[in-house]
Amino acid sequence: MYRIVFDREVFKFLEKHKWKKIISQFKQAVDILKENPFDNNLDIDTYKERRFSYRLRIWKYRFIYEILKDELIIRFVDAWNRWDIYK
Q: How far from chain centre, in Å, is Cα 31?
C-alpha cells in the first residue's frame, strides 16, 4: 500500500474548495490510488510537463502527482482548475 503525501499547494486548494463535492470524490480517488496508483477506473494520464508525473482529473480540476516507487509514496504536488494547471 502506498503512502500519500501532499504539498502545500494541494492543501491550499483543498481548503479553498472544502465546501464542494469535489473533496469527497478526491478522497475516494486517493483511497483507490493507495492500493493501485495506475487504476483504470480513474481518469489518469501522464503529465508531460514533469518527468514521472501523472494527472488525475476530477470534473474540471486537475491533481498532479508523482509516484516514488522505491519508497511507496504518492506525492501530490499541485492542484487547480483545468485552465490554470497547465500554465
A: 11
